[in-house]
């Protein structure tokens, strides 16, 4: 989950520490604060009638430094999601699920699934 080098748990989206924002919602390899959840809900509501409306990426309003500050957190999240995925695959294999079924679920071939995850067994 989003953790600073000093072990402080932080919101992935706004990077504020849990001590500052209160409760964080956890799921799928990240934690997010209530304020960021509310902001996401507002965006969903704003575009509810036209879900295909094109929006500029959020980074268009960010400086280079802000983006550079965010890149390590995005990379850490990718690592966390990958670790979570590997855990799921390990459990599926423990249950006897075939590489073919795992590959199908991931939209890749049996061989690709095996190559990516077989070292986990």
TrEMBL record:
Zn(2+) binds at residues 11, 14, 33, 36. Keywords: Chaperone, Metal-binding, Zinc. The keyword Zinc applies. It comes from the Bacteria. GO terms for biological process: protein folding. One of its GO terms (molecular function) is unfolded protein binding. Residues 1-52 form the ClpX-type ZB domain. Belongs to the ClpX chaperone family. This is ClpX-type ZB domain-containing protein.
């Amino acid at each position: 989950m989003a953790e600073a080098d000093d072990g402080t748990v932080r919101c992935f989206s706004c990077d504020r520490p849990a001590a500052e924002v209160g409760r964080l919602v956890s799921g799928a390899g990240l934690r997010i604060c209530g304020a960021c959840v509310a902001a996401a809900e507002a965006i969903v509501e704003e575009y509810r009638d036209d879900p295909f409306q094109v929006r500029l990426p959020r980074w268009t309003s960010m400086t280079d430094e802000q983006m550079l500050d965010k890149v390590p957190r995005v990379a850490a999240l990718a690592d966390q999601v990958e670790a979570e995925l590997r855990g799921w695959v390990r459990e599926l294999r423990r249950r006897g699920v075939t590489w073919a079924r795992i590959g199908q679920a991931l939209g890749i071939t049996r061989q690709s699934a095996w190559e990516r995850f077989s070292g986990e067994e």
